[in-house]
Amino acid sequence: MTTSATDMPSTWLGLSEDHPFGLQTLPYGVFDAGSGRRVGVRIGECVLDLAAACARSRRIDAGLFARGSLDELLAAGPDTWAAVRGEVRTWLSDTNYRTALEPLLVPLEDVTMCLPFTVGDYVDFYASEHHATNLGRMFRPDQEPLTPNWKHLPIGYHGRSGTVVVSGEPVWRPRGQSRRPDGEIVVGPSTRLDIEVELGFVVGAPSPRGRAVPLDAFEQHVFGVCLVNDWSARDIQAWEYVPLGPFLGKSFATSLSPWIVPLEALQAARVRPPVRDPRPAAYLDDAATPSWGIDIDFKVALNGHVVSHPPFASMYWTGAQMLAHMTVNGSSLRTGDLFASGTVSGPGRDQRGSFIELSWGGTEPLILPDGTTRTFLEDGDEVVISATAPGPDGTMIGFGEVRGRIVSEPATAEGEAP
Ligand code: CA
């Protein structure tokens, strides 16, 4: 195989070679075109209805897509994932299928995207050295920015899966308890509402309790990735997080992009992660194995203005290391478990993946092109995180976007706000 763009089979949809949702990407999602939830795969600016396509082709078990969720496909495991992806590529590149499949392509503008799978446990890591260093400097200015454990293990905590929502869902400004600079304890709406730009890893095949998942089994268990905005209330977080870590400052909302990009689509984007010093424990040491650094370029836009370009290639710990660490104690995996990378921040000021970093704790407001300034998010603000990665043969992998708008406090129909 050479690496010219012409080696990539083309689709009868006639997409340009630089389209981020050509045959090289083929992410899965769940859409509703007005008659209920259906599983689809994105090609160009359309979604192919997979249950309907399987019913016509009969080479893939249509039962995988019968329930309007990715749950069955996720659970089916890597052999099935590869078989389905191969079949879909054949369908969309072989003109013999065109007549049968063309009526099953639904324009994206005619669908609403849904949360694509039943989210199991949600774990949030803290794998960017630049982000952890920046936060350490701000939260603990009198200490070393990185805690003594940081370069020995990927730090994480268990989040709240019940508040994981799909892109486009509104995000209500959370209420909570915080401590003002003068020491007064107050209860009220967060005044330091922030984003966290992250990559989410979606677990497909489960693992039994009592068995660690080694680095080289990452692709046997993780189906694919999506974009994550892990909304964070910094004032609530700063007051509550010692000693047990994040709690209500994080649990009110986590937004996912609707398209799950299979790991198989990211093979050409794999890069060596940064050198780890000190060398990690054997179960985390990927120096001698193909590692899972990924060259993904994120873009963050606030109210239409691009404010940052966080680079995922700069992450210290990989998804494979996160999975190995998460299971080294014998913890099991369930289909639909989600773990996120932690905020992606690069070394540059315009590569930071949160507003607390971009505004340096609120002391250096961003000036937007329209002349307004921001430290943290205001009601009505809309944040859109998007990303791309290199694909095979000079193509580009698209991830789509995760979008969310801040709305003022929710109604308190079930009782007075505290
Ligand atoms: Ca986070």
Brief synopsis:
The protein has 418 residues and is of the alpha+beta class.
Question: Can you give a write-up of this model?
Answer:
The protein has 418 residues and is an alpha+beta fold. It has 2 domains: 12-114, SH3 type barrels (Roll), CATH 2.30.30; 122-407, Fumarylacetoacetate hydrolase, domain 2. The chain is built from 9 helices and 26 strands. It has helices at residues 50-57, 71-76, 78-93, 98-101, 129-139, 218-221, 234-240, 319-327, 355-358, and strands spanning 28-32, 37-43, 46-49, 105-107, 112-114, 122-125, 156-158, 164-166, 171-172, 175-179, 185-189, 193-194, 197-203, 222-229, 232-233, 254-256, 261-262, 270-271, 293-294, 297-302, 305-308, 338-340, 366-367, 373-374, 382-390, 396-407. Strands 6, 7, 8, 13, 14, 16, 17 and 22 form an 8-stranded mixed β-sheet that branches. A 5-stranded antiparallel β-sheet has the order 4-3-2-1-5. It has a 5-stranded mixed β-sheet with strand order 9-26-25-20-21, with no helix packed on it. A hairpin with a 5-residue loop joins strand 10 and strand 11 (185-189). The radius of gyration is 22 Å and the shape is globular. Bound molecules: calcium ion. Residues 124, 196, 198, 230, 342-343 line the site of calcium ion (CA).
